[in-house]
What we know:
40 strands; single chain; 7% helix; Immunoglobulin-like; mainly beta; 6-stranded antiparallel β-sheet; 2 helices; 8-stranded mixed β-sheet; disordered N terminus
Amino acid sequence: MGLKKKTKINKTEINNTLNSIYRDKDGKKISMRVQKAPSTSGKKILIGFIGFFALIALVSWLGVLFFSGFNNSGSDKIEIEIRGDKSVEAGEEVEYEVVYRNKEEVPVASAEIGLYLPKSFVLSETNPVLGDKKILKLGTLESGKIGTLKFKGRFFATDGEKQIIQIVLNYKPSNFNSNFQKVADLEVTIKGSGFDGSLDGPDKVIVGEDIVYKLTYKNKSNETLDNVAIDLVLPDEFIVATTTPAIDRNNRWNIGKLEAKSEGTVEVKGSFAVDSKGDKDILLKLGVVDEEGALLSLIEKNITTEVVGSDFSINMLLNGANNFNSARWGDSLNYSIVFKNEGKEKIYNVKIKLTILGLPKENGQSIVDWTKLTDAHGGKIEGDTITWTKDGESALAQIDPGEEGLIDFSLGIIPKPNILSYRDYKIDSSLETEIERVGNVAVARNIQSPKVTVFINSDTKFNSSARYYNDANAIIGSGPIPPKVGQKTTYTVYWNVSNSMHELENIEVSANLPENVIFSNGNTEAGTIALDGSFKKVIWSLNRLPISVNSIRAEFNITLTPTAEDVGNVLGLLESITFKAKDNSTGGTITLVSGDETTALPDDPFVTKGQIEE
């Protein structure tokens, strides 16, 4: 495509165009001179605002200079310091002195000193005596005033630890309304202790071998120490047989008073469980118990023992679990004991002994129902123990390398007693195995397995019932009974929960709605009841049910409209009715299932027919 030829524009055309631009609609020429805007009061207002904010800025700047002048000079003239040893021996009584001075030319008011000590420091004395929260009220500090606060105590911490003592002085200068603060810190390092000890035990053991750990402790100081205790920290796989002296349920020896220059010993005997292997650490901590029951350590002794696996393995499952589980009154206890020869030699004459303790005993009787025992392996019962030997189970006479065997049996838990003496019950199952000979070597080895515990869940009960008539034979539903094709029949459903042993949480009751059944008018004493997002499931949920509430109820209506195909049949009203809750004490899940609700209304004595009619 060719280029267009340029058209030449003459001077006359340019002038005509400019004249048309600079004339108004009447054809008159527009004046292009700049006109001066009339003066207004806006400029005066603007100048006033600028002056006002400049004044504010000046006052603020002067205030900053004034206050910073006090902070840089006046506040530095209020002095506080902590005097005392920066390196101390654990358990030794030490004294510290707090010195405070007002070097200002004016008094300070509302002065108080706060003493903030590390948890490891046990305060024994202060002078003057402190008030609540370790606060010393000083009141007014006159110009030139010097004062002191002295305090004594002991650090209970291990060698090398660093502890911080902090002092805070709060005050208000007499010519100010603001509060000011001065802080002083002192870092203290623990160097050694007036106490010592040694921990003895084996460096290497075989699973099931009886071993002893012994701690010897000494008070080398010249002072008697009160509230002394020793905490024992063991691997989970270590099974304690005995302790000397007796240890409490928290694995603590409460020694009490430890005299100056005295010493003592504690021992723990036991063995490592059959599934143990590798390095295991045993730790004993000696210290004093504070007001909250926590141990403030003075010395800690640790020993590492290598555990060598056994050539015989044995494991036990109770209701499918090998550690903790939960069950309900009247449930079955189903045990499976699996054993195997992992070695290269034959194992002879194995004895398996299982002790099953229901605790606490109810009126002197075990909560384990031994009358429900089902055992095909010839176990012999003595007290709370059942024992299997080669006499009843031939597989225990000789176990070849790689060979394994199984002992399974079951027994029961008694039904809930009418009156409970306690709230918490459990069943402990402890398995012990004795091996007489491995190959040609008599070993007389004893192997213990980790204890398996079943906790008894709360005595929760759940009931669902659908009614057309109430107990007084008054109609609470609507529509025809029996139901008729194409007509609506409405029933009332009651869900009742009772519970007394343990608190429940995360409670949910649910049920499915069959075809042609509609939910309405939900009402409950606690929680909420409604349809889920599918509109085919009724859900009653509540966060918790305390033991102070023995029973709760929910009720709602369901409406059925039968079709011609339903004639002569009993129809479902609610299906898969399930109660679920977590037992807050045992941690177990309680699941209760109720039978389906149907037009037969088995819980309504005044309804005799449930088949659909035309």
